[in-house]
Amino acid sequence: MDKIALIVGASGIIGSNLAKELLANGWTTYGLARNPKTDIAGLHPVAADLLHPETLQTALADVAPTHVFLTSWMRQETEAENIRVNSAMVRNLLAALSPKHTVQHVALVTGLKHYLGPFDSYARGGSLPATPLREEQPRLDLENFYYAQEDEVFAAAARDGFSWSIHRPHTIIGQAVGNLMNMGTTLAVYASLCKETGKPFRWPGSEAQWNGLSDVTDARVIAKQLAWAATTEAAHNQAFNITNGDYFRWSWLWPRLADWFGIEWAGYDGTVHPLEAELADAAELWRDLATRHHLAVADLHKLASPWHTDLDLGRPIEVMTDMSKSRQLGFMVYQRTEDSFFDLFAQLRADQLIP
């Protein structure tokens, strides 16, 4: 049977990599976004705003997906607003597709805030779970838009009879200009500025992150897990962690990232040095650097997301996830994290996004 995918958030890190993965494996693939990508060969763009359900019928008139992949969210000022807006996006889309009776599977990407709580919660160092994080750990007694999104998928699945999967990555490493959560590119921008100014590549985060074990998720790896879960019956109606499959300490990785750029580095010195403050006045410097090196993007804020990198690297806990659940069901993809960063840096340089 033909597999027809609708990717929500096809312009993002996960969505764009998923589109390439599915297209390479013969899927008919539609990419939905407010401003959809048109630079992926074979991807059919769908321009739509999920917060305006009255427009969805027109936008999706000729789209009858068998599989839906929800890889996008919209950041709001409060968690209550996060819940209202992001649950509505899921609800509106699945309601618009319901009359077609073609959807067989819906995959939702959330993340480790399922275990840690919303940004403000874990940033304050509230009740923190034991690691490694496992899928069977219960929901926290906190407002969390991930839970609201899940509930919308569960309700629509009960109504329409499709299967579902939930995917919980940790810190996506991959390229997407304008993405709100982009540690790899943010660190590449920071390192490039350090090289320009002669300043050391200084660790910005907490002692717990510097010395503790951690893991991250290559966008290519989660793309493969999304495709696997959508087409593997044993993986249906399940939630899965998804990381590269290795563990590391930032105290080990940080010098290696600095070496790639040929710059000096500085480790944890007893103080957190947030990147948001470090890059607060760097917009003009980046614009000048972009002009001299003929870079494709001169707006620092379209490349770097220091606020999110600060949240990741400032956590008061090591963050590592258990991957045994999907491994037992046959998902064996593995990616060396050092190479995830180096591949990204090389791609950014090839695309003239960093000097």
From TrEMBL:
Source domain of life: Bacteria
Annotated signal peptide: none
Name assigned to this protein: SDR family oxidoreductase
PANTHER family: 3-OXO-DELTA(4,5)-STEROID 5-BETA-REDUCTASE
Domain named PRISE-like Rossmann-fold: residues: 65-355
CDD domains membership: 5beta-POR_like_SDR_a
Gene3D superfamilies per UniProt: NAD(P)-binding Rossmann-like Domain
